[in-house]
Amino acid sequence: MRHFLTTRDLTAAQFEALLNRGEEFRQGADSDALSGTHVGLVFFNPSLRTRVSMEVAVSRLGGTPVTLSVGSDAWAMEYRDGVVMDGPAAEHAREGAGVLGRYCDMLGVRSFPEGKDYEVDRREPVLNAFARYSGVPVINLESPLDHPCQAMADALTIREQLGKTTGRRVLLTWAYHPKALPMAVPNSFLLGAARLGVDLVLARPEGYELDVDVVRAAERLAAESGGALTVTDERDAVYEGVEVVYAKSWGALADYGEPEAEFTRRAKLRDWRVTEARMARGRNAIFMHCLPVRRNVVVDDAVLDGRRSVVLDEAENRMYAQQAILEWLASENR
Amino acid sequence: MRHFLTTRDLTAAQFEALLNRGEEFRQGADSDALSGTHVGLVFFNPSLRTRVSMEVAVSRLGGTPVTLSVGSDAWAMEYRDGVVMDGPAAEHAREGAGVLGRYCDMLGVRSFPEGKDYEVDRREPVLNAFARYSGVPVINLESPLDHPCQAMADALTIREQLGKTTGRRVLLTWAYHPKALPMAVPNSFLLGAARLGVDLVLARPEGYELDVDVVRAAERLAAESGGALTVTDERDAVYEGVEVVYAKSWGALADYGEPEAEFTRRAKLRDWRVTEARMARGRNAIFMHCLPVRRNVVVDDAVLDGRRSVVLDEAENRMYAQQAILEWLASENR
Amino acid sequence: MRHFLTTRDLTAAQFEALLNRGEEFRQGADSDALSGTHVGLVFFNPSLRTRVSMEVAVSRLGGTPVTLSVGSDAWAMEYRDGVVMDGPAAEHAREGAGVLGRYCDMLGVRSFPEGKDYEVDRREPVLNAFARYSGVPVINLESPLDHPCQAMADALTIREQLGKTTGRRVLLTWAYHPKALPMAVPNSFLLGAARLGVDLVLARPEGYELDVDVVRAAERLAAESGGALTVTDERDAVYEGVEVVYAKSWGALADYGEPEAEFTRRAKLRDWRVTEARMARGRNAIFMHCLPVRRNVVVDDAVLDGRRSVVLDEAENRMYAQQAILEWLASENR
After folding, report:
1. CB-based burial label for C237 (10 Å; 0-12, 13-18, 19+)
2. What domains are there in chain C, each with its CATH number?
3. Which of A15, A63, A195, B328 is 20 to 30 A from B31, alpha carbon to alpha carbon?
């Protein structure tokens, strides 16, 4: 069974083929790859972009989306084995995912981290339970560690904007935000951009290191694609000569599960913001963000509303990337 | 870009053409005007009739509805420019509406008034943000000031029931209700009915005046169509000789944002109710209401269950009116 | 107007024909019986299996589902006649159901019991209001007393697993669960299985009697089909020689509306659990449950994960049973 849980599982050729197909969809390619099929979209957490872009992508391929917005309270799901289920969880993933797999031909799953114990969250228990028990192909619509549909859309956008990507300088910079957000997007961006042969720079304050396995995987992928990954806690000079600025906030791994300590650490970092002055140090750099974005907190209006902001194109590319992913899964699992 | 935000934007010929087309849909006309398109339906507030009638209308035209029921809490959206977004709003309408416009070919938006400051609400900030930033045609599914789909359904219903409308006497009467409701429906009814050449009477207690701009616009439209608009605070004699009774409750403009004062004012007005005795003063008058309606509070059972009640036909006409509106927007924006 | 409110309304021939057609759908039969139609699915209570299996069933028949997840809070609906509606309910079923019937060609309704007064709940006020006022065929998606779609799926599953059913021994056993659940599933299972000519045994603790009318109807149906129904409070020996074990928990009728008394009664019944030892007394019995199921509370892992557990097949049969029901209603009401 072929799933789409992370871009890490893809060979270089598969990754490249998905991007090429995504570009064809952007240019208007037709496909009825999902004709007569039903794709369940299970949201344990709220979603706007992912939900709408997936529903439209499924529909454009001739399929029928079936969306379930389940609150984590409304449908607490047990995923551990051997448990006596006399607590809040009324259903085990073996049955919950198993049943959905009987009704749907494919399943998309969004499940955020609990944010208490990193060792639990990094195993992505809900996503993996669906992959294990549903009996159908599963697409990750954002898990604790990864957001591979976003990664594909981001890579599509960089190729769309820059053309040839080898050797171009790409900055992923942490940004201030009032809340400690998940790490799925920076992780997945790193893993996707590292495939493009770019000179990739990750800038984040002390304590905001990303998962060490993810960073090592990105380093390896960067090397394989003829690029490189550098990590720094510098927040100004890193803009020098970059052609892509990707901003994102996330919570401090150093304070995982300790919101007060995280809040104190974060409070001093309000200056990690994308400004016109910083952008001016780049080489006519485009500005990227996965959205939603807090204006004048993460990035200044002048940058976001400027002519080098490509955030809406990036969001639109979600749809094309997902069409490519859905079509590929349908063909691989035929 | 042609939107459908209020019937005020329509010429007399456009209004007439939409009603004619609505009648054709009621008689079973087919259309695939939305074939291959996706229509996003964004509800910042709950909806039953509007949501189902829009989903079915889109589907009957060959399109695919994508419904988003976003609580105002769940997805607070900033619409002011230049704000530092470190409060509850995680997304600005520029991005929120902009992204949805990339995925959908058309958007419907429901956004009720906040009910605090009339000067804010009457600018219809959320609806206008969608019209400005989404890049696609926007349909108003009820805003603080207007409910133009209801207005078209109401006009369709009056024509269906009365045939020739010129010179017929139509009463819009305020009614008691335990809560202070928005003014969108009475506003939009006035603006729509004023197009029909009828002798229109608005009866409401002191303090329950409607927006002065709306009333002036309705007076002008009534004059243009050969009819007239009269306003009164009389609640009994106004039924004399009417052929249409349209009942609706709304909050006192005089007490906007002051719920306790409004409650006190309202408490004395329980007798503003549609009874059989009042209906008997009309000329075999039909009874209309946009629904939902509180029985024996707004209107007596005997009237609502009587043979001159057309509330279900009126609700059914929502679907046909919306088919006409959707088809027209698709053709105007091709 | 033909509805599908309970299997009790079906003749033996109709019941048999629905099962046969369900089997054809399981074997891949095609049908476009709902082509061009819209089926409203109204959930006053949460749903996973029923919602997804109905959406897919409608879609497989060429129809378009329109799902409404209305919280009982969000859309309290009055169903009593003659009431002055100045309380929480903003809409009466006459209008709520009436309007939905104007938009949709068929309606499915889920409405759980309130759990306060059994005399109120057993009249199934919300379901019956929809049947009376909507003007279109109504399918019961679980009411206080009945879950007839589940009953059809259960009967399909027994036939699928056992082949010829006459004279086979089938056990419906109460099981412990931390909450007092509704009785719709055990009722509907009894009424459905009684049609199969089986030797049916109902085992439940004292106080957990099922509705006397339901039990009598099941006895009569069992007799008509050449089988029999026995009721006992034995929890071990009843497994002797059975070929089907159907486990389900429900609240004590003896303590209806008195949760503390029910909790006290229930607390002593933790041993009513399906274990391997109990299953071993049967004749290679299959294990059935409507799901969701609490592992190691209602049934042990070893049974649920064993090769005689058919719970996922049973859930899958919901889809085929519902296709048969939808197709039948469409043809009966044409």
Report:
1. exposed
2. 7-146+317-332 (3.40.50.1370), 150-314 (3.40.50.1370)
3. A63
